[in-house]
Design goal:
Blueprint: H1 3-25, H2 29-57, H3 69-104, E1 108-112, E2 118-121, H4 123-129, H5 133-136, H6 148-155, E3 163-166, E4 174-181, E5 187-193, H7 195-231, H8 237-268, E6 277-278, H9 280-292, E7 300-305, E8 310-312, H10 315-331, E9 338-346, E10 349-356, H11 378-383, H12 390-400, E11 404-410, E12 414-421, E13 426-427
Helix pairs in contact: 1-2, 7-8, 8-12, 9-10, 10-12
Length: about 425
């Protein structure tokens, strides 16, 4: 038994014995013991009252250090309280440091609960969105950021890593919004001002589009003179090969300009509407016919339409997607190889796959093959007549149709490019 309890019980027993002994002098030992017991009970009730008041008010005049067990209890509680107070000070200091560091962030941060209501935010978020403390705390974030792209991202954050939207404060400011799970039932919304990058990207697109457009006219003149030279019977024989080479390079430059113009249009556009039905089997047949006409590429091409159903979107852009994928597959497949084009529909949407038995793509190159002018093997790519923009056009055209491009490939075994269209882009045949 602990010493404080031993001392308490010993003192109680001695007090009861003394009370009974004094009561014995008056022939009432039981009464003497009862008086002592009541005294002890009153003392315990007094200390209980002190403890209850201390716990309620947090203040006590003095600690009963000479009252044995109760003195130990009060001292222990005071020690725990002092320790908790020190911890509280450290915690408050840590919170202040964290708050100061978040206020120093250039990016905005907003903590949302499960109902998308604003719990807290830093100074950058206040400036970027024009938030006001009492008015906007507790507001649903959809009431402040009403852009359709943000609403769609907020409801399905797993479908994309981030979204870029114009600022509700100023039309020429662009914000990048990213959602991160934050604690139980909470989400951290990070907001970054990307206006400068968006403006630079727009300047780049405009420059490429304008430069490409201006190059078309002089290139057309040059190609006209080259065609006239090639058809002139008086052209010396030693000039025919250089003129033919110039014609090939001019034709390649024209294809490059056309691809640049197409890519600029796709990059600057929004998702296309769903009011036009595009005949997918017809697209595949046209792409097959075009690929078979490519010079120097005798490859077997098979088209397999496994499911009925068409797409809703822009026919010229979808034709560009199919044409680029099939022509790329043909260019990178040996003469004895095969290209398989399949179209299938399931509960997850429509799936257009182009599979070849060509040279394949190295694993480290797969994430970058949709970049502009990126070539896993630049020498062979130029010899095969590509412009380096085909897959970039495919990526942006698919993005405008809410679709994704999946690439699977192994060097020496071929590649498979699969376009996944969502169910709401399908026009199922009745």
């Amino acid at each position: 038994m602990p010493k404080p309890w031993t001392r308490l019980l010993t003192r109680l027993a001695l007090s009861l014995a003394a009370g009974a002994l004094i009561g014995l002098l008056y022939d009432a030992p039981a009464l003497g013991a009862l008086v002592v017991a009541l005294f002890w009970l009153g003392l315990q009730l007094l200390n209980l009252y002190r403890l209850e008041r201390w716990l309620v008010t947090g203040r006590i005049v003095e600690i009963p250090a000479d009252e044995g067990l109760w003195g130990t209890v009060f001292s222990k509680i005071q020690f725990i309280k002092a320790k908790a107070k020190r911890r509280g000070k450290r915690f408050r200091r840590l919170i202040q440091e964290l708050r100061a560091s978040t206020e120093a962030f250039p990016d905005g941060g907003i903590i949302l609960n499960a109902a998308h209501e604003i719990l807290n935010y830093n100074n950058a978020a206040r400036l970027l969105l024009g938030l006001k403390g009492r008015r906007d705390r507790g507001q649903r974030i959809e009431n402040l950021l009403r852009h359709p792209d943000f609403i769609a991202y907020l409801n399905s954050p797993a479908e994309r890593p981030f979204v870029e939207i114009p600022s509700p404060q100023a039309g020429d400011t662009w914000l990048l919004c990213r959602l991160i799970p934050y604690g139980p039932g909470q989400t951290l919304l990070l907001i970054r001002d990307v206006t400068q990058r968006v403006k630079i990207e727009k300047v780049r697109r405009d420059f490429v589009a304008n430069a490409s457009h201006e190059l078309r006219s002089p290139l057309t003149v040059l190609m006209g003179y080259l065609d006239a030279l090639a058809e002139d019977e008086r052209l010396p024989d030693n000039w025919r090969q250089p003129v033919g080479t110039m014609q090939d390079q001019a034709l390649r430059m024209r294809r490059l300009i056309e691809d640049l113009l197409t890519l600029s249009k796709l990059e600057s556009g929004q998702p296309v509407s769903r009011d036009r039905v595009v005949d997918v089997p017809a697209l595949l047949a046209a792409a097959r016919k075009e690929a078979l006409s490519l010079p120097g590429h005798p490859v077997r091409i098979e088209v397999d339409v496994r499911s009925p159903g068409n797409l809703l979107g822009e026919e010229t852009e979808l034709q560009s997607v199919v044409s680029n994928l099939v022509s790329n597959a043909v260019r990178y497949t040996p003469a004895d190889g095969e290209v398989h084009v399949t179209w299938a529909v399931d509960d997850e949407g429509g799936h257009l796959a182009v599979r070849d038995t060509g040279i394949g793509i190295a694993e480290e190159d797969i994430p970058r093959v949709t970049e502009r002018f990126y070539r896993a093997d630049s020498g062979r790519a130029r010899q095969r007549g590509g412009t380096g923009l085909g897959l970039a056009i495919v990526k942006h055209a698919l993005r405008r149709h809410d679709a994704d491009l999946e690439i699977r490939s192994r060097v020496g075994e071929g590649s498979t490019f699969t376009c996944h269209f969502p169910p709401d882009r399908l026009a199922l045949n009745s």
